[in-house]
């Protein structure tokens, strides 16, 4: 995918020009992957900061720990400046300040500062950087990176589709790893094995829950308790291939589900289809939310998940959110999850999730869609 | 481990008093796990910020998205304030500002700001928080959280030891998954399966490399190229159990290694033992570095990895660093990696890594130590 990076730089630079940004400063795994092709699991180590500076024109400059120079050089970035990190006196700050002084003398430097972003460097280093460049103005990027990354290229869509296909194959084998008496934690381990066997590079995310009436939340780690006959089991996976995520789930019932649970599942699938139909170019994220919520609650909204789906790609969750206040206009190339949830009894819920891609004529399924009737093991 | 959290609060508060901090503000996965027992893979989703405020006395206050309330309530934190995130108007900032105004009126609020830390919230939210609290002073925590987390409790050491034992069992089965002709990427997948089968909750980190003279770096993802007879293969795993990491590697040779490679491996093991012997209470991280570097280079130092080991625990890499400038005094309860590396030929290297824990009388191995003679498959 490195061949399309120069076009990404130019698109970013066109948006930078609108905001009068002389440089863009990036520090996170997804942003460095997106603009430098820098792909490694080493981000799991929090010790070292990593910097990429995109000038107003031309190629980015990498300011990174020496340990990453060989890998960075495999991508299209040629100007790679390194220091021996960790450095207890100056952990890359002066090197970065020099680069910014050279690339954007006295200019405005944009950084992602909106929802879902953070600055991946120590606050002390951030303060030292601004002290070193008193003539520079550091400002938000106006959502520039989010907007760019929201619309995926065909190669990116293919990568996400491959991750989705791997997850689909793993879910098709769910019967191999779920049975009454098995601790949920063991089911989680075994499902991750299926994902790897089917081609995942790694399983960055797995959540889920189990219970007769659904589950209390969708973010808890699996406990040691055994699965019971009649349990609904939900597994939600964010596996990664070539750096790109899928993010979808499946609910299965260990034995026939109670009628109310079966009906709740069917309604989640109805809501998914309503979201799919609404997810057309020109519609907004809000429109998709409204279409799904009409099925789920008759339009009353609510629920503690906070949204009914979201973007995905280099991160498990990306903008936009299918949320009443997200007015992002859907465009061809956006990849979304549709993720309706319902309370079944007080304190218990069911969640369903599929992945779709927006095309010129409407959405296409990347997963499923699962049938309305819940699978029974 | 939740029963020891109140003691952690009190230790943190004693250090806060030294720095005249009225509150500590924490935002990251490891810090919320450490002080609130909040353990979830949901951190993989970057959308939502999470906040924990530790007052000068008493229990912490959680200011978190509603989606996490049920899980947070399973821990010892009772004051849980939630908002429906994502919120496009105010994503938790006012709720957090209110909490800080109540808990620490006009006081000094400390945040981790040193090496290996970052603030996990949007920069725009961070600016809005300071604007909302003009009478408060936000300042660094003086390394307080790093110092606290560096010394592990017996329960934490047991958790790390369990992760190390799982990794040891997986490495003992390496012969099942490595053979000439297999793409390294497939070997990575298969080794992760072994880690899961042996009890890992998940495999947060796996890196490695292969080649006749070693590998170019230790952070690249596995390529599609096949392993060849005579290759040295290194796998370095950071698997997780109950939230705690191991971090160690093994080198194996596909067929007898070249004499120079065998000698380099033996020297890495010698350096590991030198580090082990030096890693005693009262010694510094620098002392351990010096002992290892004497074996590796005769005391000349160098190499692009930047250090010869580091702490580990709730994160793959934690302070201290075995580095010439890290004067941290070793204390019983610290868990460290010993991670010597050597250049074999220009641009190729070997790396070895073991995990140890510091006790009253010296270090104890949590892994290995591997024999000087490299394993041959």
From TrEMBL, chains A, B:
Pfam name, any one: Creatinase_N
Keywords for this protein: Membrane, Transmembrane, Transmembrane helix
An example Gene Ontology molecular-function term: metalloexopeptidase activity
Record-given protein name: Metallopeptidase, family M24
Top-level lineage group: Bacteria
Peptidase M24 domain: residues covered: 159-358
Organism of provenance: Oceanicola granulosus (strain ATCC BAA-861 / DSM 15982 / KCTC 12143 / HTCC2516)
Transmembrane segments: 50-73
Matches recorded under SUPFAM superfamilies: Creatinase/aminopeptidase, Creatinase/prolidase N-terminal domain
Residue stretches making up the Creatinase N-terminal domain: 8-151
Keyword hit for Transmembrane helix: yes
Keyword Transmembrane part of the UniProt annotation: yes
